[in-house]
Amino acid sequence: MELQPGLRRVGNEIVACYLLIDDRGVTVVDAGLAGQYDELLDELAAAGRTVDDVRAVVLTHGDTDHIGFAERLRRDHGVPVYVHAADAARARGESKPSASFGRGIRPWPLVRFFAYAMSRGGMRTEYLGEVRTVADGDRLDHLPGSPVIVGLPGHSPGSIAVHSPELDAVCVGDALTTRHVLTGRRGPAPAPFTDEPDVALESLDRLAALDATWVLPGHGTPWNHGTREAVRLVREAAGARVH
Questions:
Q1: pLDDT tens for the chain, residues 1 to 243
Q2: What b/e sequence results for 151-188 when a residue is b if at least 16 CB atoms lie within 10 Å of its CB, and e otherwise?
């Protein structure tokens, strides 16, 4: 799906990743599920590109539904994979999340999420053999979209947002969701499976300050009403005080 020139989504509202495209090539933000590799190739073709145009993968965090085809790109095509240092071990399969499900779980959305994940290779994720680490504030100007790394710890220790000022867009991974995979609730809200929910809410101040139009979650539909409004609604959904 093309969201605007230079910005595309791979996948759907259940699991999504994003392409930042300019004349230097393509930056892939997150790598979804292993079985979404063919969808990546289709989306590249729709943009007039091929896998040879991919310059890097930048992971918002190291969970298995975000690293799916990253190792395939790294191993088979020499594509470097970037992740925050605090999530590097998770991306390599050396540590596991200790996350809570949260409240209000409904059977059908939960079944749909896990059925989709299994159909797209969620049980055969390849962990990363090698990663390059990034930190809050890093500017990856050598990559397409000139992404800037914004630390958003909480969902995981090394959760980040990947902000492209050039595209007026920020990929947020699981810092928030616009379709909760366990309840089916639509609209900006806290994401499930979060290590430290209170810390994740606190981190949203940094997201609101970016003032980007496009907010692109790993689960849910793209949001184009701005970071500030998204953060306000996440805190409202969490029952937290807006500030």
A1: 999 999 999 999 989 999 999 999 999 999 999 999 999 999 999 999 999 999 999 999 999 999 999 999 999 999 999 999 999 999 999 987 655 444 444 555 556 666 766 767 766 789 999 999 999 999 999 999 999 999 999 999 999 999 999 999 999 999 999 998 778 889 999 998 899 999 999 999 999 999 899 999 999 999 999 999 999 999 999 984 443
A2: bbbbbbbbbbbbbbeebbbbbbbbbbbbbbbbbebebb
What predicted TM-score, i.e. pTM, was given to this entire model? Answer: 0.90
Q: Distance (Å, rounded) from C-alpha 49 to C-alpha 222?
A: 22
